[in-house]
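Writing this down once: the sequence line spells out the residues, with the fold written below as integer tokens. This is how one looks:
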Amino acid sequence: MDKAVSTDKLTKRFGDFVATNEITFDVAQGEIFGFLGANGAGKTTAIRMLCGLLKPTSGSATIAGFDVYRQTEQIKQVIGYMSQRFSLYEDLTVRENIRFYGGIYGLPKTELRRKADEIIQTLELGTVADKLVASLPLGWKQRLAFSVALVHDPRIVFLDEPTGGVDPITRRQFWDMIYEAANRGTTIFVTTHYMDEAEYCNRVSIMVDGRIKALDTPAAMKQAFGVDSMDGVFQILARGTSTK
């Protein structure tokens, strides 16, 4: 399968501290790939390197075939990004946020208007389209931020802790949007510390102290570790216990 993301011993050091330690993995085009771990495990550092925002110390990686050392500008054109804080400007309206981000990616004005109308209609935000984002409920902001990250039809979208702070029902509704994007061929790379969300991914990796300790499908991981939940897998890995 085509590789949307490929890394080999990707490492980032900050002085004597190793934030990510020789991580190696591939992500197929159209895959929902979960990048799991506790806070401080190195997930955000890794995603920033893959997005071209942070230069690795050593190792290699390509995103949609572009090199993370030499082709960061090309990478930024083919990816979308959504952070835990939703990457929205709260002093702009819903419509203005969509047009602002579409403009950053160079969409023509006619395409911007079409995209804005499409997103507003799909999210049923017509009554608040010209209201400030600051006035929206958290769940609406979350769905809007995801749609904005996809406004330029990227090949890969990176979601960094996208469901933090929202209730379980809203989280599940957000994952429905992720499935829809993946079904259209978009690769989803999602970091999270919610172990139950691993069940929604095609494959997951689990990071502990900067290293990838396991990488497989959720079902295969649970079978290998003899547990019935991904949280059980994580607890075993966090204690440093090997598989059966």
About this structure: Residues 3-238 form a domain with the Rossmann fold fold (CATH 3.40.50.300). The longest helix spans residues 168-183.
